[in-house]
Design brief:
The protein is of the alpha/beta class and 409 residues long. It contains 12 helices and 16 strands. Strands 1, 2, 5, 6, 7, 8, 9, 10, 11, 13, 15 and 16 form a 12-stranded mixed beta sheet that branches. Belongs to the thiolase-like superfamily. Beta-ketoacyl-ACP synthases family.
Amino acid sequence: MDRDRTRAGRPAVVVSGVGAVSGAGLGADALWTAVTERRVLTGPVTRFDMSRYPARCGAEIPAGAVADLDAMVPGHASLAARFLAVAALEALRHAGVPERSRAHRLGVFAGTVMATRPILDQGIGAGRLDVSGRAWAQPDTLLGTLREVVTVTGPTVLFAPGCAAGNSAIAAGARAVAAGEVDVAVCGGVSELSLEILAMFTSLRALAVDTVRPFDVNRRGTIPGEGAGVLVLERADRVAARGGRPLARLLACAAAADAHNPTQPHPDGNGLVSTIHGCLDRARLTSDDVDWVCAHGTGTQASDGIEARAVAKALAGRRRPVVSSIKGQFGHAEGAAAALEAIVAVHALAADLVPGNVTLIEPDPACGGIDLVEPTGRRAPVGVVLSQAFGFGGGVSTVLLGKDDHAAG
């Protein structure tokens, strides 16, 4: 079978480059190093005053990394716009794709939760709420800095499906590449810490005061994070023609909407079950082919239990699904979370290393039926990774990634 075709006969889509801005600093390698060194990067927020909040932690981009943005991309009132541009530049250079070229059709597919919404905090802090003409009310401005440093000759699309945003953008970019609408798809998600977000999660009583502990019996909530993750997607034959080497294959994507509750997934995890089955069916794989489930794993009481039961149900096979979440280290980077996790999945495939549940102390019996990875991680063959994300309103988006030599084509 032609390795540059999927089993359904469509062109194989591969990941040719990755770029990241995260609590570990600038760069996809910095992100992966923090994962392997098991560093917990949440701590007291320093960018603005949190003294009135009961939970005051976040996973901020280090101040030094923020300062380094000045030498890399033009200024912008929103840090998120700059995070996204820097991650995109890194990913394109990693892929060997010129960022200033009209020789290829390059499209941008970006996901976010609230776009440049943190700019609204400035008005709130000044005791006024004048949103007329403010950048936060114009989500397209989020992409302005990226357009200044990358020549975009194809479509530019911004998605806002809650915290499933990164995976939704990856799926859209993959479809555009497979359909021949673009040659290069710059796909990912972005988020910036905001008082608005912190206030919202505080009102939902969903914030941990110290540490995120996904799947732990003593988990007490999540901690907001920020950053950007970008993957460059191309057809396998295009990468091969220029002598490039893909980092991974995008085997399948699937999405669903429970439409059950404004903030919680369906108790039975119906949306997640359907997306897992959808990915496996499209890739013509079975549950036993999945080596690692990169979980949404927010550390909240309701979500983790639902996710664990849904994964156990959807991947019932000869062995329990191997599951871990990196949010214990990086917090919940909202619009950027799924994209950053997809980048970690790409690294895990290359390294044959399953990241651990770093902050897990006592697994919750209510999260049974899955094989929770020990905090130290696990050396094991990793050929297929399922990476999943939930969004408010019941949205679920799942991507299935595999080694380039794995049987997608």
